[in-house]
Design brief:
Blueprint (H helix, E strand, L loop, with lengths): L6 H19 L4 E6 L14 E7 L10 H9 L13 H11 L8 H11 L3 H9 L13 H5 L4 E7 L8 H9 L3 E6 L6 H4 L1 H11 L1
Parallel strand pairs: 1-2, 2-3, 3-4
Amino acid sequence: MNFEYTLTNQANFLQKVIKKLIDKKGIKIFSLAGHSMGGLIVLLRDKLPIEKLILIDILGVHVKLSKQQLQAQKIGGVEKLSFLNLTDKKQFKKAMKESMYKPLYMPNFMLEHIMEIKVPLVEFERKKFHYIADKNMFHKDNLEEEIKNIKQATLIVWGKGDLAVDVASAYKINELIENSTLKVYEECRHYPQLDKPKQLAKDIIKFL
């Protein structure tokens, strides 16, 4: 609860973790993928021996208001949005529908187990989110300059139906990175790794 979850602070923490790992394993060069808030990996582009980057529906580039951002403005804040209000199974199912084009089947016992874990974390999740977005869900950290300076070959993957970060951001990022490849998936929202796992795996393997 006391950690300041800005993208910069998270990136600094991640850098220390990866540095220890590559020193321990003797890794000389590697590729790095980040999803959503994991877009903060662009802040590590020249701080670690990264050969290639994979950016999946990332935060940090402002182009067009997403449906969730418009909804947050309409209701006066983000706290009532389903993904920050996981207080019962109904809210969790709603969040799944907003995050995935075809929500995965989940048996009741699994839902109950997830709620046991998630409900006590609602306050923490809201606090964490407010470090990266304001009450209208605008991103506080603009990563455009960092992204513009990426020299690594970069794969950009986006769900065309992403409700959290509009697909317009994908096209903007593709413009900013000189050596980039863009893949936009139909019938896919904020989690290509869940909506289109086989296609994503195929595209990443080909890219690497």
